[in-house]
What does this fold into?
Amino acid sequence: MRKPQKPSELGFTYHDQRRLKQALSHSTGARLFRRIQAVLLIADGRPIKEVAEITSSSQRSVYQWIHEYLLEHRVDSLLDLPRSGRPLVAKTLTDGRIKRELSVIHFR
It folds into this structure.
C-alpha cells in the first residue's frame, strides 16, 4: 500500500488553499462546488478515499480533479467543458409545421 502524500508533495501551496476556499464560497453550481470541495479537502491533507466519500464521488474522479487543478493552479480548470446534447429550447410547434410533417408520411 502506498503511503499518502502530503499536500505540499502533491504540489499544493498556501495560495491554493486560499484560492479554493474563496472559490468555494462563491460557487453557484452543485457540480463545481463538489469539485472545488474535493480539491480543497485534498489540499488540506485529507486522504483520497475519505474525500471521495464526503463528496459522493469516485476516487478516480477526485484524482482527475486534482490533476486538472494542479496543471495550472486555476479553479476554472474544474468547470464543465462545453458538450453537445439536447438543445435548450425545442423548435416551436405550429399547425403549419404539424401539417407539413404529416404530409411526408405515406399512409397505406
About this structure: The chain has a mean pLDDT of 87. The chain is about 55% helix and 0% strand. The helical segments are 7-10, 14-26, 30-43, 48-54, 59-72, 95-103. Residues 30-43 form the longest helix (14 residues).
